[in-house]
């Protein structure tokens, strides 16, 4: 293989995966590895997967037995891997066995944390751990593409709602101090900030529609004290920021509820199917037991032959 020295500066983290006829290298953005248990959610949908990853190269390997040998992964694959993993570029390997081969025989290659494999990152327990927080539990064999897609959407909704509120509070608490600690609900907080900083956004909403009189008085004082702040802020940037928060903080919780209902309904169906399977097994066991008992009872009857009696109770003969 002719080795051409490549500019690897465009690569973040390189992932090696096996294909039916060879191996493929993908690049994934380093930022998503900051939370390894959430990596799966980036690949739940094609759009988000394409946002954080791209194909780097593919190699055909005719004899894969060489790859898995104790002295593997073979000259051809080794040179190909090294081509993209120079300059301390970390490699994430598809599975544990291949990772051990590369770790033993390609010591110059840096493996990601020396712990995670691609299988653990993309198909790890992070998915089940994430959905279990919402009270959803399904057996591994019941997890299909549709379930992963819905679970990924639920996870993204949950994260976005959290960060929308957090980011808005960080931006506005500096401008209107003392309000954030009094309002726990993020949507209400966004409405209050809109009323104080960009009144045009919530012309049909008043403090008195959501707060008691004493709280209304505090908010009115805060609004009156924010006259200078309104003149200093970048109006259009703040307008877009608060408007986006208002829209998303109303939309995303509703979407989150629908996704939860959908996933819980699927989990319930899986649970019922399992119960039916268990009941079916018990039924067949019970039927077999009843048949055996009936046969024994027949042999114990006065009309049973002595030969049958002997066969039924060999220990007593």
UniProtKB/TrEMBL annotation:
Q: Which species is listed as the source?
A: Urochloa decumbens
**InterPro entries, from UniProt?**
Nop56/Nop58
Instruction: Give the PANTHER family listed for this entry.
Output: EXPRESSED PROTEIN, NUCLEOLAR PROTEIN 5 NUCLEOLAR PROTEIN NOP5 NOP58
What ranges does the record give for the region Disordered, renumbered to this chain? 289-317
Q: Where is the composition biased (Basic and acidic residues)?
A: 297-317
Protein's recorded name: Uncharacterized protein
């Amino acid at each position: 293989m002719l080795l051409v020295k490549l500019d690897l500066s465009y690569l973040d983290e390189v992932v090696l995966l096996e294909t039916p006829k060879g191996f493929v290298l993908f690049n994934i953005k380093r930022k998503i590895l900051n939370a390894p248990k959430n990596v799966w959610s980036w690949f739940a949908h094609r759009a988000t997967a394409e946002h954080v990853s791209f194909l780097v190269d593919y190699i055909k390997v005719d004899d894969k037995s060489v790859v898995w040998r104790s002295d593997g992964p073979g000259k051809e694959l080794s040179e190909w891997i090294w081509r993209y993993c120079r300059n301390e570029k970390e490699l994430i390997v598809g599975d544990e066995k291949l990772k051990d081969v590369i770790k033993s025989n390609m010591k110059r290659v840096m493996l990601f944390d020396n712990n995670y494999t691609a299988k653990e990152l993309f198909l790890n327990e992070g998915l089940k751990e994430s959905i279990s927080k919402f009270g959803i539990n399904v057996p591994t064999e019941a997890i299909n593409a549709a379930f992963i897609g819905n679970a990924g959407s639920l996870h993204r909704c949950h994260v976005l709602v959290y960060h929308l509120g957090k980011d808005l509070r960080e931006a506005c608490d500096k401008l209107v101090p003392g309000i954030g600690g009094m309002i726990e609900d993020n949507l209400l907080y966004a409405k209050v900030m809109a009323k104080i900083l960009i009144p045009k956004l919530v012309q049909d909403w008043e403090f008195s529609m959501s707060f008691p009189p004493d709280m209304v008085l505090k908010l009115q004082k805060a609004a009156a004290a924010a006259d200078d702040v309104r003149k200093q802020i970048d109006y259009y940037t703040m307008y877009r920021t608060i408007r986006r928060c208002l829209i998303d903080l109303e939309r995303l919780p509703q979407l989150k509820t629908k996704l939860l209902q959908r996933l819980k309904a699927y989990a319930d169906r899986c649970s019922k199917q399992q119960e039916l399977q268990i009941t079916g097994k018990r039924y067949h066991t019970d039927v077999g037991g009843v048949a055996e008992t009936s046969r024994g009872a027949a042999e114990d009857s006065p009309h049973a032959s002595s030969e049958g009696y002997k066969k039924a109770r060999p220990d007593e003969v």
